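quick one
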Amino acid sequence: MYLMKALSETEIQEKMSTIDGWDYQNNAIHTTLEFDNFKDAFSVMTRIAFEAEKMNHHPDWSNVYNTLTISLSTHDVDGLTEKDFELAKIIDALVS
Ligand SMILES: C[C@H](O)[C@H](O)[C@H]1CNC2=NC(N)=NC(=O)C2=N1
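structure w/ H2B:
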């Protein structure tokens, strides 16, 4: 299995400036999304799930009613890779 290279701290800072509304903390990037209701939250989760499956890159997330909390990291390298930022951008596009 080909493993992507974990990004360096400098590369992470650089990539953080290309996404809005995400925090970098504990080797992962995080966001919280709020919707009008549970149905909207779960509908977006379903759409994200299909994209994640296509990429074979899966979010760590939790949902409480209308709120979706997402953390992205690359478990295989125990860090952040291009894929995390790629998925973050896909998520942002889905909710914008
Ligand atoms: C074997 C399988 O391809 C890997 O475990 C994939 C699946 N989805 C994944 N998702 C995330 N977020 N990180 C990974 O390292 C990862 N690895």
